[in-house]
Amino acid sequence: QVQLVESGGGLVQAGASLRLSCAVSTRSFSEYAIGWFRQAPGKEREFLATVDWNNDYLDSVTGRFHISRDDAKQAVYLQMNTLDPEDTAVYYCAASRYMSIHTAAYPYWGQGTQVTVSS
To answer: What pLDDT is attached to residue 1?
Structure first.
């Protein structure tokens, strides 16, 4: 069993940066693959990145977003740079026993954190 809580979202202007945090509560943190997803209004939830394959970013965020992991703190981070209004969405972290880019493969999800980018 694992529980996840996202934080760090907010309202920023275009071009700004944000760092999202995902606090993971589990006795076996190293056994889980943690992924970041986002869902904009009226759109499907889309995969962004996992810590296992941190070069496997969505094409629209490659070079701007970076994922990292801190085992001591049991936390995963998503650094987002040069934000654009198109990045406005609810951002989620999720956990799976195996790395995957598919939403359905992740049984554990956080509640999400809102990121709004104004022009």
So the answer is: 86
Q: Is 61 helix (H, G, I), strand (E, B) or coil?
A: helix
Q: Are the C-beta atoms of residues 7 and 78 closer than 8 Å to each other? A: no
The CA distance from 61 to 80, in Å, is 9
In 3-state terms, what secondary structure has residue 42? coil
Per-residue pLDDT at 60: 79
Structure-token pair, residue 47: 């995969």
Q: Hey, what's the torsion of the CAs at 32, 51, 13, 41, to 10 degrees?
A: -50
pLDDT of residue 53: 61
**Distance in angstroms (rounded) separating the CA atoms of residues 119 and 18:** 16
Nearest CA to 31 out of 66, 60, 69 is that of: 69
Which stretches of the chain score pLDDT less than 50? none
User: CA dist 83 to 70, 75, 87, 100, Å?
Assistant: 24, 22, 6, 25
